[in-house]
Amino acid sequence: MTEKQNFTIVKRGYDISEVDRHVAQLNLELREYREKDSAISSAILNAQIAADEIKQKANTAAETITSNARAMAEQINRKAATHMTAVIGEIRTHHALLGELREEYNTLLSKYFKAQDAGEIIQAQANAKDLENFLQNFIDKELGITNIIQNQEPEQA
User: Fold this and answer.
1) Residue 151 clears pLDDT 80, i.e. is over it
2) Dist. CA 58–CA 46, nearest whole Å
3) In which element (H, E) is residue 13 found?
4) Which tens digit of pLDDT belongs to each residue from 45-100?
5) Per-residue confidence (pLDDT) for residue 10, from 0 to 100
6) Which of 143, 130, 57, 156 is nearest to 94 (CA)?
7) Are the CB atoms for 27 and 2 separated by under 8 Å?
8) Whole-model pTM?
9) From CA 155, how far away is CA 83, in angstroms rounded?
10) Among residues 109, 111, 113, which one has the least CA distance to residue 101?
11) Residues 6+ apart with CB under 8 A from 117
12) C-alpha Rg value of the chain to the nearest Å
């Protein structure tokens, strides 16, 4: 603020005490406006600081959540790949066992045909065809996915 100015008193003019009171009132109002301005500036600064802190905490929380979600997804993918590999291995084992069963069946059937006479051979052939159809239906229904999986390799995690 400016220092108090003393004015020269003249005969014509305003009442000095009224002018002094008015100037004092104006100085008081000016001081109040400056205090309010300072308080408002301080409040704005504090609000900006608080907003920045909230934003930083939200970003940190979002990064943590995203990181945890990615880690969980990777773990699930690894477990699924491991499980799929195990299932494919089991299917291949069962398929191999069915192949061995078919070979053994054909061997036994061949031995049987050699031991039977012509009439029995025709009946044995019909029975063998029924048994072969049964085995094929079993393979198609129970292990039908074997053909699909044989041509696919599991994805590595």
Assistant:
1) no
2) 18
3) none
4) 999 999 999 999 999 999 999 999 999 999 999 999 999 999 998 888 888 888 88
5) 66
6) 143
7) no
8) 0.47
9) 11
10) 109
11) none
12) 49
